[in-house]
C-alpha cells in the first residue's frame, strides 16, 4: 500500500531504477530489526543526499510526532490521533482501518542528510509553518529542527504563508528575487555549472515572460564591446563622415536623414538654390545657406 502510493506519486515520475526504491516494511515480523537494517542501508550507500518531505498540521515531519526526540533514528512510532485522521484518505476514509503505529526515519536521520527540502502547501499547514519558521527549535514542532541544518529549504505556496508575519513573507520574497537576478547574471557570464544551468533553464520555462527577458537583457559591458551595426552606422561609414556614428536609438529615428546626408556627401557640390531647404531635427524647414 505505502510503496504503491510512493510509486504513483513520486518514483514513477523521476529517473529512478525500481530496485533502488526502498520503503520501510511495516509488515515485517521484527519491526525493530527492520528499522536498524534501514539505518544500516542508509549508511552503506554513503548517507542521504536529499531528504524530501512534507509537514503535518501539527508541525511534524515524517512520522516524528510532537514530542519526538530531535536526535531520534529510524524507529517504531505511535501515531497521534490527528495524524490518523489525516491519513484516513489512504484507507477508504475509514479511521478504523488506519494503523495506529508507523515506521519512520528519525529527526536525527533527516538532519544527517546533506540537503533537506520540505514542501508545505495550503492554509491548513499555515500555522505549522509559522511555528517552525518564526519561533525557536522545539520538539513539539519537529520540523523546526531544520533551522539547525546547514542546507535546508522550505518550498511553500501563497496559502501556506497566511499565518506568517508580513515582514517575514516580504523578506523571503526579496531573497528569492535577488537569487533569481544572481542566477540570470551568472547564466549570461557562463559561470553556472551543469546542475545550476539545468535549474536555471527549468525556471525560464516555468516563467517565460519574466525570466527569459531577464536572461536576454544585455549588460553594459556587452553593449559597449559589441554594438550591433545599424543602417545608420553603415551609411555613415560609406560617406566617410567625420562625426562618430549615431547610437542605435537615434539611428532608428533619423534613418531617412542619414541616407540623405550620405547622398549629399558623395554628390557634386550644388548651390543652395538647387538644394532648397533642408529638414531639421524638429521637423521644421530651414533655408539653405
Q: What does this entry look like structurally?
A:
There is one protein chain. The strands form 3 sheets. The chain has a 3-stranded parallel beta sheet, with no helix packed on it. It has a two-stranded antiparallel sheet with strand order 2-3. Strands 6-7 form a two-stranded antiparallel sheet. Helix 6 crosses helix 8, helix 7 (194-206) packs across helix 8 (208-216) and helix 10 runs parallel beside helix 12. The protein is mainly α and 289 residues long. Helix content is 43%, strand content 9%. The longest helix has 24 residues, at 166-189.
Main-sheet strand order equals 1-4-5
Question: Structural class, from secondary structure content?
Answer: mainly alpha
Give the end-to-end Cα distance, rounded to a whole number of Å: 95 Å
Order of helices and strands: HHEEHEHEHEHHHHHHHHEE
Mean pLDDT: 78
**Envelope shape:** globular
Beta-strand content estimate: 5-15%
CATH architectural grouping of the largest domain: 3-Layer(aba) Sandwich
CATH class of the largest domain: Alpha Beta
Main sheet overview: 3 strands, parallel
How many H/I helices?
A: 13
CATH fold descriptor of the largest domain: Rossmann fold
Low-confidence stretches: 210-255, 263-289
- Total separate domains: 2
Amino acid at each position: 500500500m505505502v510503496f504503491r502510493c510512493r510509486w504513483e506519486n513520486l518514483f514513477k515520475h523521476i529517473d529512478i531504477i525500481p530496485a533502488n526504491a526502498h520503503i520501510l516494511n511495516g509488515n515485517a515480523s521484527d519491526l525493530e530489526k527492520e528499522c536498524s537494517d534501514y539505518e544500516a542501508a542508509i549508511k552503506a550507500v554513503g548517507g542521504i543526499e536529499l531528504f524530501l518531505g512534507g509537514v503535518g498540521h501539527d508541525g511534524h515531519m515524517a512520522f516524528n510526532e510532537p514530542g519526538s526526540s530531535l536526535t531520534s533514528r529510524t524507529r517504531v512510532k505511535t501515531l497521534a490521533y490527528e495524524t490518523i485522521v489525516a491519513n484516513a484518505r489512504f484507507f477508504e476514509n475509514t479511521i478504523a482501518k488506519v494503523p495506529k503505529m508507523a515506521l519512520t526515519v528519525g529527526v536525527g536521520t533527516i538532519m544527517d542528510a546533506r540537503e533537506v527540502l520540505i514542501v508545505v502547501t495550503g492554509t491548513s499547514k499555515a500555522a505549522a509553518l509559522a511555528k517552525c519558521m518564526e519561533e525557536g527549535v522545539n520538539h513539539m514542532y519537529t520540523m523546526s529542527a531544520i533551522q539547525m541544518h546547514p542546507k535546508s529549504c522550505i518550498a511553500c505556496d501563497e496559502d501556506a504563508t497566511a499565518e506568517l508575519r508580513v515582514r517575514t513573507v516580504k523578506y523571503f520574497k526579496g531573497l528569492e528575487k535577488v537569487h533569481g537576478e544572481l542566477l540570470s547574471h551568472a547564466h549570461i557570464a557562463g559561470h553556472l555549472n551543469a546542475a545550476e544551468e539545468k535549474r536555471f533553464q527549468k525556471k525560464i520555462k516555468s516563467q517565460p515572460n519574466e525570466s527569459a527577458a531577464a536572461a536576454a537583457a544585455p549588460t553594459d559591458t556587452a553593449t559597449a564591446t559589441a554594438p550591433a551595426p545599424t543602417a545608420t552606422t553603415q551609411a555613415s561609414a560609406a560617406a566617410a563622415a567625420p562625426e562618430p556614428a549615431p547610437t542605435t536609438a537615434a539611428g532608428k529615428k533619423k534613418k531617412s536623414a542619414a541616407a540623405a546626408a550620405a547622398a549629399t556627401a558623395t554628390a557634386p557640390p550644388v548651390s543652395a538654390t538647387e538644394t532648397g531647404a533642408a529638414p531639421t531635427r524638429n521637423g521644421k524647414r530651414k533655408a539653405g545657406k
